[in-house]
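Need tokens for this chain, all 336 residues.
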Amino acid sequence: MSLLEFHYRNVLRMLPASYRAEREEEMVAAYLEYAGDVPDEANPKPRWGEVFSVVGLAIRVRLAGTSGPPTYFAWGETVRMIALLGLALQAVLSAPALPLLPAMSENEQFFGAAWSADRLFNIGEVLLGNLWLVAFVALARGAGRTAKTAAVLAFGWSFLVPVVSGGWPTMETWSVGFVVLSAVPVLALLLGHHRDAPPPRRSWWAALLPPAAAAAALYAVNHYVTDRVAAGDTTTVETLSAWAYGPGGIVIALVVAAVAALTLGASGPTLLALAFYTIATLLDRLPDLYHYHDEVAEYWQVAALQSWVLGGLTLILAVVGVWRLPIHRRLQERSV
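Here are the structure tokens for all 336 residues:
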């Protein structure tokens, strides 16, 4: 075996063993023929273009579409559902700012003086943050390229804002939740929705209802909180803030989605994707148990209760999700 052939076979190890068993020899022969006669003394290595092409092929095989093996299709569907649900969650978090934008834009204390750089930057932050909504709706409707463009821009903007506003040290304060809830959906979108993947193509109703419902709910909560603040009812405001704002709102959204998915008999990949986000949110919620301990009893109690709910929900979603995977059903059929 020549040194170049050895390197090619090492690169092809990124592919599944079953795929290599069928096509490795053919692929190695084609690569060697294209490379020509290169002596070992020259320390030949595969071209970067060839390496990247194998990486892309490995992703398409391991996260297969409908034509792939059941195991790889199940993994592919799970990654694609992680992308869809992650974008849905980001859309739910960003959409409520839209109905409040006219009122906020008139508030100079919030947005800055008229025609100032701060005002333009803050308005742009709200608008570009809603690219998550564009990405989710586009993906739900099957427009993969539009979804990828919007998601990358939205994540890039969320990455750029801390750097521009406060410098690199502010990035040290990023939480696990921020990284998981913003970076993972984009990565899953880029990896899972390749050219062999089936587009979701959900209805307009399914694409627009989650962010619209979230916007309406948060708008109602904000209106109610404003009335309670005006009436001097600080206890109710603190309770609602603990439950509905920040991580608490994410927990509520995940619980609603998980209950709906379990009730409606969602597929295994959907439940596993939800389990991924419940465990990620749990990891983001647990530090609050330490942060609010002996400080704000109300917030600590809510964080503790939501952590228990997330832990139990993660276990249920994971077990039922694995049970509903197509590969699990096939193993059951073979054992009969």
